[in-house]
Each structure stands twice: as structure tokens, then as C-alpha cells.
Amino acid sequence: MTTGDNSGRKQPGKLGLLAPGTLVDGRFTILDFIGEGGSAVVYVAEQKTMHRKVALKVLKPELGSEARRQFVIELRAVGALSDPHTISVYDAGASDDGLLYIAMELLRGRPLSELITQGPIALDRAVRIADQVLDSIEEAHAAGIIHGDLKPENLFISGRPGSDFVKVLDFGIATFFREQSATFDSELSVGTPHYMSPEQVRGHKLDPRTDLYSLAVILYEMVAGKLPFEGVTAAEVGYHKLYKTPPPIRAQNPTAAVPPAFEDFLRRALASEPMLRPRNCAEFRRDLHLALAALPTTGQQVTYAPPPQEPVLRPRHDTRPGVPLPSAPDPGTGKPLPYDRRRVPRERRVRAVCFEHQGAWLRGTVADMSAGGMFVASAVLPPVGSRVAFFFAPAPDQEKWRRLEGLIVRHVPSPTGPGEVRGFGVRFCFGSGTRLPLTVAEALDRAALSDPPVVT
């Protein structure tokens, strides 16, 4: 939405667009054409009562009831927000001839997508842009709103060079996540393929982490100059999001001065499983700035060596027959943990798991599990970035435990919301070059059979 030079502006390509001079609802005079999307057309218009120019977004009249319903949702969403980094709405309504419209502030500047085409963006500038986007979507999430289509085209940059001011635009496919039904309609799971979250690709129910995933893609693209997941088709991009990890930024942009901690942060923020990512805007911002704390001071020469190979923890087997696993209570209830074999929803099966920390074997509860990782409820939190061996308790008809190695990717030291527990997130390590499992059962089938670990 810009009022700059018209020479590069898209011109109307269809009949039925409103001509300059057209009066909409008796209050807005069309002055110029700005752009056209799948469901709406945006014009420069003058609001007669206020004598000011606005961006007038008009729904295409030929669209059906679903498009009209989503247009009303956008109006509800943007109308409920007041953060300075969210585009402001001045008015909305329906004309006598049935045109639905939203009158918004007319912005001067350019979209972030145009800035990215000029080359990679310096890390400190990219983080300032991301911080402002977080301000906008944090207010939206607090109001129960998911943007659902964060991408560079929907982030508008204004202000003088060196003082970027970001506006978040186009809540056209926004979702009120607290109003989603228990069985989410996958047909509503739309967005832009390169910036969609894996749960949007799968058609799953969404929560605020879907916007944070999209912001992580944008942050990666700003610094690397390239997208983390690319493909010829939308299906190929979706497959890479679900089963691949993004290449390091320095592999895409060798001149980027980014600390390894920032690379680690982006790997967590781009995890295919939502439970492995930052849970909310505050956690995303905190982890981002903690990663930046590893940046060298200006002028200092930067050299990056690959991280040292972390030792793989091996169990200490006790060869004596009949030696039981040391008793350890559930950190939440204080009672022993049974192995639950009942058929319950995927990622919610309760499992006892044992892991080593500082020379002692401890037991935790798998509160959430998927093919790629798990969340372990535990009073003890191994260091983020450490590689740990986990032992899953056998079913009643089995003798052997199962052993999988995993990387600690995040901590939840102080639960803040209902149903949250203290614990840590784990990403399973299946080895380079191997096909990733598709289900929890397949992941556990790959786990090596093992004798129970014992305290030494």
C-alpha cells in the first residue's frame, strides 16, 4: 500500500474494477488503484468526511459466502488490535449495492519482500524488524487471533534508512484460535507455501506457534538471503518442512556474521514439531536475544569453527540377573510411573523414560511425543544443546528397554499456562542420511533394545 511513483505499480487487469471518481457507500471517492489479491482489490481513496486519503480494501463481489465470512473475520481481527505495528483500521461497512470494504491507513514505504530482493539484511537490522513484528502478533495472540499468513509481502517498512518502522498487514486469513472446533477444518488451512507452518501443511488445528514459525522463516530469509526450504512445487516445499532441517545460514550466505547460538535458535524455531519450538512471543524474543548475546563486538574479527563432537552417552549395563531398575518417582505425583499401552491419541501416550544427568540415572514422564521428538516432564533439566540417551520402559510382556538418543532443544523451567509442566523438549537423533520416521511407533521401532540402565 504505497503512494509512491505509479510507474512500477500494478495496473488493473480485469473488468469490473472501480474507476477513479467512483463513490463507495457515499463516503469514499476512488482515486487510484494499488493492487489486487485473490479475494480483494485495494485502492487509494479519499474519505470525504475526514478529508484524508485511505487504503480502501474492497471484496470482489463475485466471490461467495465463505470469502465474505473471512472478510468479516479480518475486520474483527484488525479492529480488535491497536499496536502501532499493526495497520490501523479507520472504517468498514457495506455499500447499498453490496460491496464490502475496509478503510485502512495509507502507508508510505515498501514491503519487506522488496528489501530482501536487494540482498541479505544485516543481522542487527533483521532482529529489529522481527522485534516489531513480535510486538504486533503478541497483541493479536493475546486477543486470540492468529495472523496465519505472515510473509515479507505482508510486512511494510516505512521510515528513514536506519530507522525501519514495521507495519503488519493483511489479516485476510486470520483465525480466532480459541474458536476453532475440536475437529479443525483442513480446508481453512491456507497460506503461502514457503512461509506456512508444518501444522498448516498437515491441516492440523493451529495455535500461536504457527505465526512464530512463519516469522522464523522470514528472519532466516532476511539474514541468509534465501529461504530455508525451497522446492519446485508446494508439495515439495511442504515435504522439506516436515522431514528436513534447514541448511546453516553461513552455508547460504558465507558473509553473514551470525553466532552458532543464533543458528541453533533458528533450528529450534523451524522444527517441524510445534512442541520443540518457542511457545509464545515472549519465549521467542527471549531465546532470540539470548542467542544474540554470543555476537562479537563491532570490529572484532569473526571466525567460526564447527562445534566439537559431543560424546554419546552409553548405558552402564549390570550383567547380574534380576537387578531391578532403581526406583524413581514421577516428578509431578511422586508415584511410580506405569507403562500405559492403551490406544490413546498420537503424541499423548504416557511413557516412563529414564535418562542420565551428571552421572545419575533419573526418570521422567513423556508428556508429549511425536515421530521427531518429545517433551519430558522432569524436575531436572539437562543443558540445552546436550545429547542424552533416553531409555523407554518396556511393556508388561517385554523384557528389554528401548534406547534412543536425543538433543535437548528447550527448557520450560516455570510453567505459566494451564496444563503446562516443568520439563524439556527433545529432538531425536536418527543419524545423518537416514529416512526420518513417520509415526511414533516407527520411531520406537528404530530404538535399540537395551538392558535397563542402573545406578553405579
Overview of this structure, please?
It is a single chain. With 456 residues, the chain is α+β, with helices and mostly antiparallel strands. The protein has 3 domains: 16-105, Phosphorylase Kinase, domain 1; 110-246 and 258-292, Transferase(Phosphotransferase), domain 1; 351-450, Thrombin, subunit H (Beta Barrel). 23% of the residues lie in helices and 22% in strands. It contains 10 helices and 18 strands. The protein has helices spanning 65-79, 112-116, 123-142, 198-202, 209-224, 234-243, 249-252, 260-269, 281-292, 440-445, and strands at 23-24, 28-36, 40-47, 52-59, 89-94, 100-105, 110-111, 145-146, 155-158, 165-168, 175-176, 351-357, 360-369, 373-377, 387-392, 401-412, 423-428, 448-450. The strands form 4 sheets. The protein has a 6-stranded antiparallel sheet with strand order 1-2-3-4-6-5, with helices on one face. A hairpin with a 6-residue loop joins strand 9 and strand 10. Helix 8 (260-269) packs antiparallel against helix 9 (281-292). The longest helix has 20 residues, at 123-142. 34% of the residues are buried. Residues 1-15, 178-189, 296-332 and 334-349 have low confidence and may be disordered.
